[in-house]
Write the structure tokens for this entry.
Amino acid sequence: MADRAQRESQGPREGVIRDAYFVSDSTGITAETLGNALLANFPALTFRRHTLPFVQSPPEAARVVAEIRDRRRGADAPIIFTTVKSPQIREILDDADGVIVDLLGGHLRELETSLGSTASVRAGEFHGVGDMERYFARMRAVEYAIEHDDGQSMRALDIADVIIIAPSRCGKTPTTMYLALQYGLLVANYPLTDDDFPADGLPRPVAPYAERCFGLTTTPLRLSQVRHERRPDSTYSSLAQCTLEIRRAEDLYRRNRVPFLNSSTKSVEEMSAVIMQSMRLRS
């Protein structure tokens, strides 16, 4: 035990890939999200990630422990992020010969004390259907996002919470889907093409809803790289074309007072947070 503690207290060894496990009694989404947020604070290190969802019984927990032990490479103990509610299963996972990071346990105990109530030990409640009204609102939002992706439909734009406009491949679709699925927002997106220029105003389909529009931009080089993966050696992916489209789009945003952000160095989560804050949206 002392040898293990000594190894784990030492600094990272150069070139070593550390195993990181996300163990959950449900889908593993919470464990991945919180665990990766913590790992992001160590950009100099490299992690080999494994997600082990639906660990809901002692035999399943024992199999997880055996798997982690079998996969262990070298002297570096794996990092094991857990979002398991059952104390019995958590106790079994403690034998996995790794560094256990319980992402729920301490917080649940604090809440139990503060609220004067005992937390449910049923697995998967956070990512279950839960609030049916909220669940169906998210599903309707996803259907709306699919229908209105890339300007495919102009129907019912009057009920959109936000309309994302941008040149092709600036991140409209993933941001739209994230806002719909995560927050239940009605989001449409519209591609700015050569047909929309030259013009002083917004494209005709979205012009009546200017106050709901939000623009995305990026760097010409990044846009060219992304487009090159789709259509290599084409005018569409050329640096000159990308530079022209970005310049025209940003000019359009400024003329029409459309808020916008550069997506080149931001994750979908970050872009969504900025959009919600800028447009004063609430889920």
About this structure: The longest strand covers residues 17-24. Confidence is low (pLDDT under 50) at residues 1-9. The CA atoms of residues 84 and 214 lie 39 Å apart. The first helix runs from residue 2 to 9.
